[in-house]
Amino acid sequence: MMKAGISPPTRSTKDSGLDLEKLEVKLKELEAELLEINANNEKLQHTYNELVEYKLVLEKVGEFFSSAQNNAVARQRELEVQPIVETSIDSPLLMEQDATCPIKHIKLGFISGLVSREKSIPFERILFRATRGNVFLKQAIVDHHVQDPLSGDKVVTYFKL
C-alpha cells in the first residue's frame, strides 16, 4: 500500500477490538443458524423419503386391490350367468349358502411395504415360518429408486403384499 501511495487507515486498537468482538458474536449467531438449517434440512429429507415410500406403497396396494375387486366382480357375474350344473368340473364343491356359513369366520389381514431386493428372500422365509406356511405373498418391482430414510442410501425395492 505504501508503494501505491495509499496510507493505511489509522484505527485505534480499542475500535478494532470492538469490531472483532461484534464480528465474533455475529459469526457465532450465523453458525448456530446454519447448524439449525442443516438439522431442519435433514429432518425434511427424512420425512420426504418416508412420504415417497408411503405413496409408492399406496399406489401398489391400490393396483392390487382394484385388480382383485375386478376379478371378483367378473367371477360373480360369471357365476350368475351360468347355471350351476352338478356334473360340471368347474362347479363349486360347496353351494353358495354353505360357503358363507356363519359358524366359521376367517380373519384375513394384509401387510404391505417396501423391502429391498437383498432382503426380500430372507423376509419371505421369515413370513413363511412365522405363519406356518399360511401366507399369500405378492411382489412387484417398484420402478422408482427410493432413498432409505434411515441410512440415506438409494435402494431398489420390491413391493410386498
UniProtKB/TrEMBL annotation:
GO terms for molecular function: ATPase binding; proton-transporting ATPase activity, rotational mechanism. Essential component of the vacuolar proton pump (V-ATPase), a multimeric enzyme that catalyzes the translocation of protons across the membranes. Required for assembly and activity of the V-ATPase. It is a multi-pass membrane protein. Belongs to the V-ATPase 116 kDa subunit family. Its main location: membrane. It comes from Trifolium pratense. Keywords: Coiled coil, Hydrogen ion transport, Ion transport, Membrane, Transmembrane, Transmembrane helix, Transport. The keyword Disulfide bond does not apply. This is V-type proton ATPase subunit a. It comes from the Eukaryota.
